[in-house]
Amino acid sequence: MAADGISGLPATADANLALDRQQAKQMAQMRAFKTADPKEADRVSRDFEAMFLSSMMQPMFETLKPGKGLFGGGNAEATFQAMLVDEYGKVMAKAGGVGIAAMVRQQILQTQEVR
């Protein structure tokens, strides 16, 4: 495997490293989150569900090999695949997700003692 990414690693490793950093930043923001605004709690809980769904789908998409099919894109496809999976998670969460956001919202508001 040739080193073709920014860090000298394969492009997919660079994309995965960037995604891991983004998820770590989001987790730190969620841990420090405090609000009395139910709308803000909705947003944060939906973001958490999107991140969770993306994390669950990532291994499924890692089995796909870039360059197969009509529009095989090589390094660019490998690099942007992680971002595509992240967007899939956001779309799924916005469409109702799997119910995690509602539970997280409830816990946020309970913890903050907001009814």
Structure description:
With 115 residues, the protein is an all-alpha fold. The chain has one domain. The chain has helices at residues 11-31, 38-62, 74-94, 100-111. Helix 1 runs parallel beside helix 3. The longest helix is centred in the middle third of the chain and has 25 residues, at 38-62. It is elongated, with a radius of gyration of 17 Å.
DSSP helix fraction? 55-70%
Tertiary shape = elongated
Global mean pLDDT: 78
The major sheet is characterized as: none
Quick structural gist:
This protein has 115 residues and is mainly α. The protein has helices at residues 11-31, 38-62, 74-94, 100-111. The termini are far apart.
List the helices and strands and how they pair.
Elements: H1 11-31, H2 38-62, H3 74-94, H4 100-111
Helix pairs in contact: 1-3, 2-3, 2-4
List keywords for this structure.
115 residues; elongated; 0% strand; mainly alpha
